[in-house]
Structure formats: structure tokens, C-alpha cells
Known about the structure:
Elements: E1 2-6, H1 14-25, E2 31-37, H2 42-50, E3 54-58, H3 67-91, E4 95-98, H4 106-113, E5 117-122, H5 129-138, E6 144-147, H6 150-156, E7 165-168, E8 195-200, H7 209-220, E9 226-231, H8 239-251, E10 257-261, H9 267-270, E11 275-278, H10 287-294, E12 299-302, H11 307-310, E13 317-320, H12 325-337, H13 339-356, H14 359-374
Parallel strand pairs: 1-2, 1-4, 2-3, 4-5, 5-6, 6-7, 8-9, 8-11, 9-10, 11-12, 12-13
Amino acid sequence: MRIANIIEEGRLGGPQVRIANVACALKDRVQTTVILPEHKSEQFQSKLAQCNIGFKLFNITRITKELSMAIRYGLFSLFEIIQLTVYFRKQKFDLVHVSGGAWQYKGVIAGSLSGTKLVWHLNDTSMPKFFRFLFSLLSELPDAYIFASERTSQYYGNLIPENKKRFVVPAPVDTQQFKPSDAVMARRLSENGKITVGTTANVNPIKGLELFIEVSALLDTKFDNLQFVIVGAISENQQKYFQQLVKMASQLGVSNLHFLGQVEDVRAELVKMDIYLCTSVAESSPISVWEAMSMARPIISTDVGDVAEYIEPGVSGEIISDRDADKMTEYVSRLIEQPALRESYGLAARDIAIKHLDIALCAERHFAAYNAVIN
């Protein structure tokens, strides 16, 4: 089985990690070629090369708020679609798997024009009206859809023709790679008398990091032995937002907050966290949360995506609604005061990750979806 998996965003993030991990897990049965943009994709290329997954680089533009990029997007999109169509026809793939969400439609059009079987992988739970409208126009083209979460399925359900096959496949985590014993290189920060509250999130408004800072400020009024860490890339186009967060932390007197940026091995930072927070405004199937669960971290999260499907309140973590800073602070305070409860939540979270989110399970679901569409 030969699969082309295309994504228009080259920077390494959740969808890119999922593409690489699934391709690696299915390597004995599926020959995957990943089509990705050349621009800012070095880390993604490296991850694919580590597992000997083939890839093809294209000059694929993506729309951003930058005027120059928006102009390029308008000028070159048609040419890029033609290039992709010719490539798909020449390669004669069994299936084109379009990743990255509803706004990444070039692979959908090219795959359809090439006459190749087509799956569109959706991971959004909110979209601008224009892209939602564009999606409705293109929704007839794919043979099937893969949704990263039940919430994504519900969000797009009414826009998709009833005759299309549908599969819900959560983003995977490699629970053998992400386990506490594999991060022995890290020194527990709690050894210096500090309890670490952290998150892994690229600095982006969708991650809702204002809530993380607000909760940090509230906790600092109750405890004097805390430190807060945010692990994740701070890209050039998010510098303004980053400075807003730094200013907010300063105004609230949160001097023990550390932005660590992107790290080579996130496990080394996850193992240092005594409590993991997810403060996102919107998610679908957040790999960062699944990785924290797999590392046996107790989770406190906003009610986004399918997180509530896998975090059982009072057992493996807590879920808050309405971005309630006071409620999140209350839950974190309880875990700070009860180390045994932190450990209990963390072990339960890892057990759930192993049973429901492991890469082996998710890869099999991908393979079943491919077979159903091709055959």
C-alpha cells in the first residue's frame, strides 16, 4: 500500500508528529511518502529521516497575516495545485491523505484532479467563516474523512455529505517512549524545594496562556514554593503575543515564570513538572496533553477537544469549564497540598494513555481507514 500524506505547514507540531509516528508504526505494511513545504520544515524533515520515512519537498505557500505571504499565497496557489496534481498522477499512489485541517485544501483539489483515492484529515473545532464556506464547497471531493476527535466530527458533521466514510482517530502518543523512566536525564526540580506547575504549548493565542499566567498569580498568593514553566516554540510571528504575556506576568507580579522555548527532548521537561496544565481555548486531540499523561503527570485542563473523554475527574485529573481561573487554582492547590493525590492522578493518566491513545492502537485505526477507502 502506497500512501501520500500531504501537509502545508512545515513547522513541527502535533499534526506533523502524528504523521511521522503513524508512518513509522506502519512502515512494514505501508509505504508512506510525506509531501511537505520546504520553508521552516527542517525539524520535521529530521524526524521523518530518523525513521527512514520518504518525503518530497514542494514550495507550498500558506496564508498568514503578513501581507507579503498573503500576496504570494494568492499568486502561487493555483500553480502549486497543478504541480501537486502532476506529481500524484506520476507516482500513482493508492491514496492521498490530506493532513493539517480544513484550511489545507490544496492537496484535496490536487488529489481529486489526479483521480487518486482521497482522505481528508480534520483536526479543527473552530474555523473562520471563509474557510468553513470553502470547506463546504470542497466537501464532496474526498472519499472519506478522518477526524482527530469526536468534537471535530460534530463540528464538521453537517457540512459533509452523508455518503462519505467517516473515522475518528485520536492523535497518538508513543507510551514506550514517553514514560518517566526514560527521562532519567532530568533532575527533578522539586528536589530544590520547588513544586513545578507547567505546560507544553507553542506560544500562540489559541493556547490561552493568559489563563496559565492568571492561575500562576493566584497560586503565588497562597504558596511560596512554586515555579511555573511554559515549554514551546516562540515563533517570529508570535513575538507580539509573547511580549503581551511577559507584560501580563510582570503586572501580576509573577516573577517565577519561565518560558523555556522549544527543547530538544520534551520528556526531560515533562518529568520535572509536578502538575500539568492545559489552558487552551480550542483543541481537537492535543498530543501535548497525551504526552503528559503518558509521562504520568496529573492533568488539569480546560474543556477542549476530546480531553474530557480521557481525563476522568477525581481519578486522573480535573476538567474546568468557562476558563474559570479560580476553579483551576483550587484544583492545583489541592494537588500541591497532597503529593499522594498527584501520584495517583498521574498513574491513572498514564494507564488511560496506554489503553486508549498508544501509537500502536492509533496506527491500526489509520490502517483500517486506508483499507476501507482503497478497497
